[in-house]
Write a structure and sequence with these properties.
It contains 6 helices and 11 strands. The strands form 3 sheets. Strands 4-6-8-9-10-11 form a 6-stranded mixed β-sheet, with helices on both faces. It has a 3-stranded antiparallel β-sheet with strand order 1-3-2, covered by helices on one side. A hairpin with a 2-residue loop joins strand 2 and strand 3. It is globular, with a radius of gyration of 17 Å.
Length: 207
């Protein structure tokens, strides 16, 4: 389970806190509250590695100047929050416009991060509610939630529960529309419109 520290922090205090912590423990900031994230499973990490490989091939093929760095802190504007997405796809040319990028690898602009992916862990409510709301408000164009272990509630992924990928796409009115993919459904992505990949291939982290 996630654990929190019993004090509210500013964003700058959160950055100072991170400098004192070991690298193998990950924390995020939720409205001033520092949250210790659950340790990832092997399946969780295999899915991330698989998607990163696929996306880099697609970026090369489509000649997109995007990249997926190891660590990116996404900061919603005017909020005491900061997230480390499992897969942050960055628009590299726009990083010149990010005032804190060179020093602290922080992004605040939707133009810098066209696609973000969270692979669900035990803190699934954060992905489906808290991060959903903040990523939408930031204007991030595409947000995937990869719920490979079907941890979310039946309201969110259906009954009976089964592994589900939820893809949110930003509409012209600034709100997310939702499509869900299961089993042999082919993923539909506005970022990678020619992507030839099923939900099950992502869950198994293989072709």
């Amino acid at each position: 389970m996630t654990q929190s520290l019993q004090k509210l922090f500013t964003f700058d205090e959160f950055l100072e806190f991170l400098e004192t912590q070991p690298e193998n423990i990950r924390y995020e900031l939720y409205d001033g509250e520092i949250i210790q994230m659950p340790l990832p499973t092997g399946d969780h990490e295999e899915i991330i590695a698989f998607l990163v490989k696929i996306f880099m091939v697609e970026c090369h093929r489509l000649k997109l100047n995007y990249g997926i760095p190891k660590t990116v802190l996404v900061k919603p504007e005017n909020k005491k929050s900061g997230y480390f997405p499992d897969i942050p796809l960055l628009n590299l040319p726009n990083l010149i416009n990010e005032p804190q990028w060179k020093k602290e690898s922080i992004v605040t602009q939707s133009e810098s991060i066209p696609l973000v992916i969270e692979v669900v862990s035990t803190n699934w409510r954060d992905d489906y509610y808290k991060k959903f709301a903040d990523y939408e408000e930031m204007g991030i164009k595409e947000y995937w939630i990869v719920d490979y272990a079907a941890l979310a509630s039946k309201v969110l992924i259906g009954d009976p529960k089964q592994p589900t990928i939820t893809v949110y796409s930003l509409t012209d009115d600034g709100e997310y529309s939702r499509k869900q993919f299961k089993g042999n459904d082919c993923i539909e992505s506005s970022t990678f419109p020619e992507l030839n990949l099923t939900a099950q291939q992502i869950f198994s982290a293989s072709y």
